[in-house]
Amino acid sequence: MKVVVIGGYAPSLINFRGPLLKRLVALGHEVHALAPAHVPDVSPQLEAMGVEYAMVPLNRRGLNPLADLGTLLHLKQVLNRINPDVVLSYTFKPVVYGSLAARMAWVGHPKRVYSMITGLGYAFTEDKGIKRRILFNIAKGMYRAGLRSCNGIIFQNPDDEAFFRKLDVVPDHAKTTVVGGSGIDLEHFSVAPLPEKPVFLCLSRLVRSKGVALFAEAAKRLKAQYPEAVFRIAGPMEEGGDAVTPAELAGWKKEGALEILDAVDDVRPLISGASAYVLPSYYREGTPRSILEAMSMGRAVITSDAPGCRETVIDGENGFLTPLKDVDALTAAMEKLIVDPALTAKMGAASRKLAEEKFDVDKVNDAILSFMELI
Questions:
Q1: Does 127 have pLDDT greater than 70?
Q2: 54: exposed, middle or buried (C-beta count within 10 Å: 0-12, 13-18, 19+)?
Q3: Angle CA(65)–CA(67)–CA(73) in degrees, nearest 5?
Q4: Alpha carbon distance 256, 271 (integer Å)
């Protein structure tokens, strides 16, 4: 069969969907991938996998009706040319416009159209305010329009599936399933020895809804009491109302409790240098990939009791779940791992076991392909 996979960020085709694309090629399918242009170009890596790649004009942030209409028409044109049997889209705009374009591009036969919901983002957080309410209603309407074109919808956690059903955006004709996030390559992210001193790591875009300000405050409190402990955050700066400002970042650096590192392509050295992983997000995650990476490498996890995040932690076994936006609870959970290194090691081993049982990328991809009737 001809299969098209549409993403909103070109590197995610390698980092998140690479094993799925390779599996599709190994099964004998003709595989095409579509995403916006990116520097450096990902086409050589995709071509090495046996995947044909085409760039599409898509801005994954913001809403511009004219630009988005152009995206829809361009996707329709590309899908008309390829004439696939199956289309799979993931992330917000590809789900909406990719699914609509697939239905518009029937050439001789209808396509089977699937969407993967990989997280709902800022518009679906619990923040108050007129701006967020407007974004919520726009996003809900766009999801309803796009998902109406789908034969099936793949969710990465049961909370998102229940939420979409509550919003009445899942059409009656579409079947649904829940899988273990994007899965994780257990060999690539192999277990690494723990450092001798307590080191806490957060890998995240620098936006408030990811909980990075909470992590910074907890680090400040704990560093004063446990100067030997290390607290690191790595990730890119962002723009927009939810972003950490340069002034805030400068303030964190001045306080001296938090090591702020640049984003990296390979996170394994950072995880290897940490004893525990922390992501106090209140963003509507699918299943956070960074947590799965840390779990696979045998790290205890502290994260929030939020949709997506809660799927990765059995509270008290491989880490701790803390209430949303509760810096006191976050600080207390981190302190437990500082004072009890044996607990850190025990929880890290439990994380690896859970990753093997629930999030093995091969198991996850087979579940996805079975749902899509491609194996």
A1: no
A2: middle
A3: 100
A4: 21
Residue type, 227: P
Comparing CA positions, the residue from 375, 7, 14 lying closest to residue 367 is: 375
For residue 207, give every residue at least 6 positions away whose Cβ sits within 8 Å of its Cβ, in sequence order, or none.
Answer: 122, 238, 240, 242, 243, 244, 283
All domains in the chain, ordered by first residue: 2-183+361-371 (3.40.50.2000), 199-358 (3.40.50.2000)
**What is the average pLDDT across 366-371?**
98
Q: Quick: pLDDT tens for 255-309.
A: 999 999 999 989 999 999 999 999 999 988 889 999 999 999 999 999 999 999 9
Bond prior to 246 in cis (omega within 30° of 0):
no
Contact 355, 184 (CB under 8 A): yes
Our CA angle for 34, 37, 38, nearest 5°, is 115
C-alpha 249/C-alpha 213 separation (Å) is 9
